[in-house]
Every structure is written in structure tokens, then in C-alpha cells.
Amino acid sequence: MAANCPEGIVGSLPDCIVTEILARLPMKSILRAKSVCKHWHKLISDEYFALRNAQVSVRNSMVMIDVTGTSLKFLDGLGGMSQLSLDFLETEVFVRDSHNGLLCCSTFAGEGERVDYYVCNPITRQHMQLPYIGVHAGLVNLACDSSGRKFNVALTGHVCGENDEAEGTAGCWVFDSESNTWEKFIYQLHDHYEFSMISQTGAVFVNGAIHWITHASPAILLVLDLSRNFWSEMMLPDEILQGQDSVFYFLECEGCLSVIEISDSWMVTWVLEDYDNDVWYMLDRVSLHWQTLLRMDTSGLEINPVSQTRQDLILSIGECMFVYHRNSRVWKLMYKMDDYGLTDLLSYTEFPFRATLLPCCQIDDQHH
């Protein structure tokens, strides 16, 4: 590693400006810059740099594909692909959720077998195994605090443990990285929907709470406030619920709740701009004439939004991944699974992802 930093304009800038410049680079460039000189290595290794990088990365939409349980492929909105491995976990796992650059993984287990959960950062390879809980859950959600100081893992649904709850209730075990403990939250369900109907399209963590969208009619948001240990429900506005035959998907959009409504002809993206006052607005409305736009037959194929920013939306259709650039209203084919020899796979999973340097352990915790 060079002892002296680059000369010229960059070398004469204050550290705060250099940090802001470096934090906006692609992750590969950041890791290379870390080896330029001792001073840059110190800046990039600082906790503040990881925070600033995570804050600006919300505008960088990516998709992570879990191919084999240890091999991960990452696609960006420009069609670039990179690959990382989870071999540092030293056990076979599959990814359950992704948030703020961290992944939550679990081991494979058959009936009666033990399931272990891990949280890791695939960029830094830092990882930790969560305390054993003895619970199987259909939904596993990861919530990483924007400060990077803590994270939560929620095992959600009619969780199977030693003491199953009564019918009409939902169980949710939540791990808190600050206390390194699990806590159970019980929710009394309403008659108009069941917890098993919670959407498999994921959960969104904003404003200190995890939000799930249900498949009930009308669709509602089920909310667990992690800061106050409080359950609540949020109704979607009438203008979103007007489509009787629409399918609703739930994503984050640069730190905000977003609902994507898909019908036979249209895809409409809504964003909760003002959380406290429940103010939604329409971000985009686009025609879904796929055969004309993409020159391919997508009849009978499910459209799955995976990741988005205010500028781009990445979605999968069948074995293809597309990106829609909202400003130019241009569709692009990012890749086909068979282009990468993946057509023989029985299944693969896709998650929104953005590369960060956020830690998955306490700053003073030295075990990985």
C-alpha cells in the first residue's frame, strides 16, 4: 500500500470532501481505493464512511440472485454482473432476505432437523450466527437500521415452536442485535384475513417498523413497530384499491414504502411520501404491452417487481430480468437465465440488494 495519497486536486481536498467523493463510487472502486494509500484506507475503514456509503447507495438499484446457496450473482441497472460466494459461512445455506447490504441466511433442514440463522455482509465477509431458537418460519425478514448500529431478524407467520399459539393469532419472533436476544410478539388476527395470506413478495422496513402487505380484500398493511414493540394496521388509500383485478407488490423506494399495482394493461407505482400524514402519490404509470415493447411473448408469465429506485425498476418475467428506466421510459433486457447456463436449476431466488460496508456485528464485537 502506498504511503502517500495521490497528488493534485483530490489530494488537496479536505477529508470530508474526499469521503463524500469516495462514498459515491461503485463498491469495486471503493475497495480498490482502499489500497491506494494509508490515509484513504483509514477513511474508508471508518464507521462514518460505511454510514455515508449506505445513505447514498439507496439510489443504486441492484438485484441479487441466490443460485446455489453459496454462489450469488449481482446485477445492476446497467446490466453489469458480478459474483460473490458465501463460502466463508463454512456451511450450506440459502438466502432468506436482504436489506441495506446485509443478508439473512438459514441452513437447510428437513422435518425435525435444526435450523440455524446467519446474518452477513457478502462484501466485507463479516458474519455472525444468531442464537439458536428452535423455530421454523415461512417468512424471514431482515431489518437493518440506517445508522448501521443494529439489525433485527423477524421470523413471521404461524411459527412452529414448542408452544404453538391458538387459532386466530400470529406469532413473530424478533432478534435484536443490540441485546443479542429473541423476543416473541403475538398478534390477534381479524376475521377478514389470515396471516398465512401475507404476501411472499417481502416486507419493507422504514420508520422503525416492519411492514407486510396482505392479500386480503381490501389489501392492508400489517405493521410491527420495533422501537415500541407495537402492532398496528395501515389501510391503503382508495385510489390504489380501485383495481379489482390488480395484483399488489410491496417494495422499498429509496427509504419509503411503495406499492406496485399490476393489472392486465397497466403497472402503477405508488410511494408513501409522507409517512406521518399517510400521504401517497403516484410515481409512475406505464402500459404493459410487453409483446410490442420487448418483442417477446410473455403471455401466461408472472411479472415480479424485485428492486427499484425513483429512476429505475428491475423486474423478472419468467426466466428473464428487465429494467425499466422511468425518466426515458425505456425498457431493457438485462439477462436471460439460459445465457448463464442456469436453465437446469429447479429454483432460484431474487432479492433487492445494494452493496454497502455496514457491519453485521456490534462495533466493539470482535467475533465474526
From TrEMBL:
Which InterPro entries does its entry note?
F-box-assoc_dom_typ1, F-box-assoc_interact_dom, F-box-like_dom_sf, F-box_dom, Gal_Oxase/kelch_b-propeller, SCF_F-box_component
The source's superkingdom equals Eukaryota
Q: Which residues form the F-box domain?
A: 7-54
| Cited SUPFAM superfamilies | F-box domain, Galactose oxidase, central domain
- Protein name in UniProt: F-box domain-containing protein
Q: Which organism is it from?
A: Trapa incisa
